[in-house]
Amino acid sequence: xxxxxxxxxxxxxxxxxxxxxxxxxxxxxxxxxxxxxxxxxxxxxxxxxxxxxxxxxxxxxxxxxxxxxxxxxxxxxxxxxxxxxxxxxxxxxxxxxxxxxxxxxxxxxxxxxxxxxxxxxxxxxxxxxxxxxxxxxxxxxxxxxxxxxxxxxxxxxxxxxxxxxxxxxxxxxxxxxxxxxxxxxxxxxxxxxxxxxxxxxxxxxxxxxxxxxxxxxxxxxxxxxxxxxxxxxxxxxxxxxxxxxxxxxxxxxxxxxxxxxxxxxxxxxxxxxxxxxxxxxxxxxxxxxxxxxxxxxxxxxxxxxxxxxxxxxxxxxxxxxxxxxxxxxxxxxxxxxxxxxxxxxxxxxxxxxxxxxxxxxxxxxxxxxxxxxxxxxxxxxxxxxxxxxxxxxxxxxxxxxxxxxxxxxxxxxxxxxxxxxxxxxxxxxxxxxxxxxxxxxxxxxxxxxxxxxxxxxxxxxxxxxxxxxxxxxxxxxxxxxxxxxxxxxxxxxxxxxxxxxxxxxxxxxxxxxxxxxxxxxxxxxxxxxxxxxxxxxxxxxxxxxxxxxxxxxxxxxxxxxxxxxxxxxxxxxxxxxxxxxxxxxxxxxxxxxxxxxxxxxxxxxxxxxxxxxxxxxxxxxxxxxxxxxxxxxxxxxxxxxxxxxxxxxxxxxxxxxxxxxxxxxxxxxxxxxxxxxxxxxxxxxxxxxxxxxxxxxxxxxxxxxxxxxxxxxxxxxxxxxxxxxxxxxxxxxxxxxxxxxxxxxxxxxxxxxxxxxxxxxxxxxxxxxxxxxxxxxxxxxxxxxxxxxxxxxxxxxxxxxxxxxxxx
Length: 808
Hints:
- By secondary structure, the protein is an alpha+beta fold.
């Protein structure tokens, strides 16, 4: 006890603002449930596993630790499974994740001799008792950052409910036998609360569901509220009321009154339909998409080095799928596992290792690849039998916290786009290795794209930019099963006339070869309003694209999400036929060729004159925007302000400037003159790794805002500065020396690749649904579905969202 008293200066009583790491080791995935438990430094409040606590003592000299050990209690064999009624985890009514119960013991341990004193004990110094109680009672750092996934938001009261005007049209609705008034649909029916019309709901992206008659009725009448028939019971709060102008499920406090207007006695109705939230819950529980997850396959569960799963922290599957593929790439394995020990990572980390990206990547790499945590859990019941043979996986909480620290979306518990996360990861890892670029594992994914533009004069311009992702459009017209598709659509139309739906087994989807997508990337493309310095006029140029370098790892992004008329997102229901090996040697671009003449650079005075030339808005861009319902004048301004770069660029500008005080001012002569780009902002983007010409274009398209410009670049991977005004015209003819330096900074080799991994998406949007990774390990395909790791029986190679190829 005297020894402990001599170290009281190294003991702190935690404050409410302190982060208490009592759930997990900061350098490994050891927890209080691990062998040896967890040691919490009573001065820094960092947690350490038994193999790592001495490192902390040697580094800091902090000798006093609260040791936490948890032992699993036996699980009763007859423990019932509860069906979830709430879209949540870890809350009453949510998913029962069958968490076993644990017995927790505490001790005060003094290093270096591991002298252990029981806690609680009145014999301990008061400061130690207060500090230990503070640690035990405090909400842990991980708990603060771990919210339950899929928690449905509480419905708000509709602003239209209290003032709803119902028509006295004599409509009376019966208690059963409903049918859409415009088709033969008898399910997914909605009654408009203004006029009592019964109509079918929205059509799903895969063709199932209703025929959109309810929403079409709203668009024609602007009657705002509808209730889903079959969800009305004596408990009116469970009824599904939808507000079209608010585009959300809402609460109608006067629903009883509104129903009685049409003669509906809700007290006698029985529930026959799922609410919107329940349908979403049903999809998450049942996982309708068995193909990608291979749910119907009797897969062999895998354990050992390289076969460690990642616990879903709540809609974190986008991160888990990407990291499983990354740590199957040699560059990440070498940087954060083979050539970097945990001790080295800890010794070179800042005082708080939990906030250092390289340290947490090393921790994650060792956690995934060492095999230490990839063992079948021994969950025993009262008879000693093993109930579950799936591994628990490791929770990447600290990694998620540090990688998302400066990103409001990734730090949330909402589902995210795996592609956006991958680009964010590359950006953050590149920054973390800025002082030692040779160690940057992202370099193996980087390549240079070269765009060639030829104007009617015959002269050419070249523009180069680096990228990590090759984003590919899917040319549906190149489908190889056109006859089957034609027969399918014909049959579907015939059944539709009869009020029937085609079965899932009969659905035929387009099959497009990956080669067609690659060819489409390199195919000639017209660039409108290209300013030719040879002709001193705007004209139409022909653009082709290729790669000047081939990366060690080639990532292909399939653009399955497109925008339909009205700026409505749609997921293409398509299969991509992807071979195990590809050769893209033919896509190599070799720059200026003998006999080609570059477009002349504009003289400084010409630049000023050209910049002051009045730019006319592209009628094509304006027409497309106007067809979406935007003000025609606003559409013209958007096209001019983005120099006719494209519909998407104009749309982004328009959405960002709708509230501008001068948005309704008429376009005056000379108003189209592009505002000067701040050179400081240009250099900031250049420091991020973007080319100066691309930086200028992005800043112009985003009104000079650096953050929006960065988003614009990531959202427009094929952006060409050559479609801009004369500033860009000069940029495309930039010095070949600078281009050569860029190419030298990234790897290059042959264009032959083999498929080594893929990330597949399940759902109608990249921001909802589920992500799963498939990776080739030890010569076979392996599925990584959060914490589940198994041999893949039928990898869905034709359904992935991201494909990862390795040079061979």
